[in-house]
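Internal ticket #5521
Category: modeling
Description: The requester needs a full-assembly model to guide mutagenesis choices. All entity lines are attached below as received. Residue total reported by intake: 1121.
Assigned to: D.W.
Attached entities:
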Amino acid sequence: MTLRNDIEITPELVANHGLKPDEYQKILDLIGREPTFTELGIFSAMWNEHCSYKSSKKWLRTLPTSGPRVIQGPGENAGVVDIGDGQAIVFKMESHNHPSFIEPYQGAATGVGGILRDVFTMGARPVAVMNALRFGEPENEKTKHLVSGVVAGVGGYGNSFGVPTVGGEVQFDRRYNGNILVNAFAAGLADTDKIFYSKAEGVGLPVVYLGAKTGRDGVGGATMASAEFGDDIEEKRPTVQVGDPFTEKRLLEACLELMATGAVIAIQDMGAAGLTCSAVEMGAKGDLGIELDLDKVPVREERMTAYEMMLSESQERMLMVLHPEKEAEARAVFEKWELDFATVGKTTDDLRFRVLFQGEEVANLPIKELGDEAPEYDRPWIEPAKPEPLGEVPQMDVADAVLGLLNSANHSSRRWVYEQYDTLIQGNSLQTPGGDAGVIRIDGHPTKALAFSSDVNPRYCEADPLEGGKQAVAECWRNIISTGAEPLAATDNLNFGNPERPEIMGQIVMAIKGIGEACRALDFPIVSGNVSLYNETNGRGILPTPTIAGVGLIEDRTKTARNAFAAEGQPILLVGAPAVWGSHMGQSAYLRDIFGRHEGAAPAVDLEHEKKTGHFVLSLIRQGVATAVHDLSDGGLALGLAEMAIRGGIGATVNQLNEIDPIPTFFGEDQGRYLVTVNLDPQGEEMLALWKRAGELGLFAPWIGSTGGNTLKLGDARAISIEQLRDAYEGWFPGFMGSTIS
Amino acid sequence: MKSAVVVFPGLNRERDMVTALEKIGGTPPAVVWHKDTDLPDVDLIVIPGGFSYGDYLRAGAIAARSPMMDIIRDRAEKGVKVLGVCNGFQILTEAGLLPGVLMRNASLKFVCREVKLKIANADTAFTGRYSDGQVIRCPVAHHDGNYFAETDTLKSIEDNGQVVFRYAEGSNPNGSLNDIAGITNAKGNVLGMMPHPENLIEPEHGGEDGRALFAGLLN
Amino acid sequence: MKARVIVTLKNGVLDPQGKAIEGSLASLGFAGVDSVRQGKVFDVELSTADAVSAKKELESICEKLLANTVIENYAVEIIG
Amino acid sequence: MKARVIVTLKNGVLDPQGKAIEGSLASLGFAGVDSVRQGKVFDVELSTADAVSAKKELESICEKLLANTVIENYAVEIIG
Ligand SMILES: Nc1ncnc2c1ncn2[C@@H]1O[C@H](COP(=O)(O)OP(=O)(O)O)[C@@H](O)[C@H]1O
Ligand SMILES: [Mg+2]
């Protein structure tokens, strides 16, 4: 039986493929004829937002992507950064937002699976993962179910695959009610001379399919990821993919074994729009054509059409170009791991992408143009409106406010989440979730370690995307510094609404500008990333959420810091503080999470100040002077102190400034500040030298109080016992989730 | 003292285990692939943690029925020591080398955290370097660690001193009967335990409480 | 009143568990098995004695909790 | 030939999944459910056309793999 490839191409069918009339015209002009049904599918996959970055490309180009340590920037499966001693860290972050909303467990699980594949495709063994999650408000009837499913899915995949989760984020906001965000990050280690790329080389070489069989999973998935949700969301359901971490683990081991044989010329994982994207990318990058014979593709369902095979998003699959003389050796490796191995095509010299199926040529397209000629838009944008100016800041008892924040959805402990993740596997975890950044030692290296953090404050981004973009980078950088690591490079995951609306496009443009400025100023290049647009339901977009995940290097892991008070009687310094310690209340956690107010400007980020402060803190850690370090972010000084006290099990007494409103002092969210405890005598010579050095840099590092006892006393407020702080902090999440089952 | 680590597809803590055996015993263990038809002559066989065969069907079930387990059963009968940690414990129960079963955690959630373990029997080939009643720190990381055995079985393993580790007061992470965290067979040469002593053997792990188990076995 | 609910994967949805079982059966020497798909069964006891309302209640329970209707089908059978 | 195998927990064996579902149902407001026990179902396709031998083969498969007979019972049903 021949399966139909001659379905009539109607304007409606074109529209259902997410292609606009002018885009379709472009296809007609490019190939000089009407496309076949399979070809239409291929174009829709290649030209949708998800694969082509057609709305964001123009702006992504402005990001700094190179640096002395960058081996590979954006454009490959993951970024590659030199960490010395012949080793590199390979990492990327990617979203799986829409699938996770539809089926939280499988959506999140396959998100983790996809990002792990991106990393080991390049020859790196995954050593750390993070997950940045954003859910609707806790009161929303779907939220609990989504939290429970997503967290179980993230854990279910990563735990079984065998990689430690070292950090992440969880936030709640009603603006994610209809569009949750699941951003997964993975990092792996490789030798710098054994990195594998997707660029095919050599004509007439076998194109080999590896891994799991192809089913109808997610057919139309990449198109779905770029479509706005409407009320017809139910209809999109059958495209859910199911993950199989057991197969992925075997695929990892088989790929690394295969790479070691020298058989691999080029490799590309099959992610969104599977076979189509991977084959086109390998050919186009290598200036080669590709011919695929779909009759050779291992399938697990009957009567699959060419269209379905080309668009299937079945997981745990790879495409490779191999040295023909090593094919037998390669096959043996895959047989050992009981994975499918099939030669499904060859490289050609005609720059065509040809697909054969049941004796028929179902597609014949110019391979370079499929990628290079994808539409690119300079979408109109306007500067986003400024938020309402800050009204009068309400007063509240400082102790009550601290306890309220600690017991709130957005500032309570995430233990309920991260205890479902294996944080210890591989035996290299030095700092597990709960710290400012996750830290793992480099296996086999006597002194080195790596730090990871993921950050963004979407409320700041909405109030001011430029400052918000800068702040996301700065906070990530700061979190890495706080452990004693030198920040090396970052990856971004830009989650926004519909870019066809100028105010959303304005958020995208300004956020990228802010990210670029901050990355430039902080020598923190972006080496990989992902864009997720159309996160809207019925015309209402999510909060602009450009997640930044960064990696830092610790040369000597005996010189690190944690965000837990380490000893009694140590002076606490507020490094990088303004004269009044804290002042900025616009968009603060205090206003938002206690009073439900979202007004005022986002805090401004002074990048020069960030850099100086960060390097100063790093020097204190490296000199062994700093005994605990915590960057300040939302919730300000009060929340920072409370977290250090809870984590260390040691209290503190902190002063307040005379004649100054304690609310901004304790809850202001001024940027570029760190809490540092030191093992110095506050009256001694060394402390004076420290302050002198700070002064020379133009930094203020006031001694604001000392650790000790089992209460936290903030200025004139009543002392709160650590037990009470801890109960508030640890209580919210389990209380909210109860005994839900997913 | 020679040891071997047996690897089934889907296991993922074998490197942690190999590292622990090598760091504490001084020599690296033999690493044996499940399809290998012979197992070197060793004094200790270790089945590490992970998700053999994805833990599909039941945790440890598919690995337990492999030919490699027949070889291990045979060695165990000859008195060779066998240690199963986490998935290894599940495999040993599924294979019938240890009594009882490990069911889904009572919370139905994967749990990774540090717990306190009480040494319930220090007079075994595995726990000689600990003392009876001693409480040690140890991490757990599992989805199916909820120990269950029928009343008679439970009574007999309790009476025989086969319960070796218990979750100390208030720290049972999974609902196990009698807070059971680790047991031996009647002969005492096969030990299965859910916690991961191999992840707490160096100062950089934040503690070394797991070390004595390996030190006792390997020296 | 007793009832049995059976939840199975929809056609075409990948079943890694079933696949692993197939592999294991093959290596255990059971040659005659072509495919295995794994699902769940729930044996439920209800306080009502009315089969019609019991069935309705169980269907609503399936939708809400027992089945993931994105990828699973369910069937309710009243046993008596 | 198609067959369905049902594996259930023996009486007296603790069922964490069933218990959790009971709890969840109560909090979802389904008051009429007295107890839930969770088991597994396997839909199997066999190459033989002989129902008697198929049943025998499946029973042996259950003993060997599909059921952990320490805690589980099984039932085999030939569907045709
Ligand atoms: N989804 C998650 N997975 C793992 N760890 C998480 C997750 N969410 C939050 N965490 C951890 O909880 C801690 C607090 O998170 P957060 O408040 O976002 O940190 P910070 O303010 O330092 O950026 C961090 O150590 C973070 O890594
Ligand atoms: Mg921090």
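Resolution: model delivered.
Comment from assignee: The first helix of chain B runs from residue 14 to 25.
Ticket closed.
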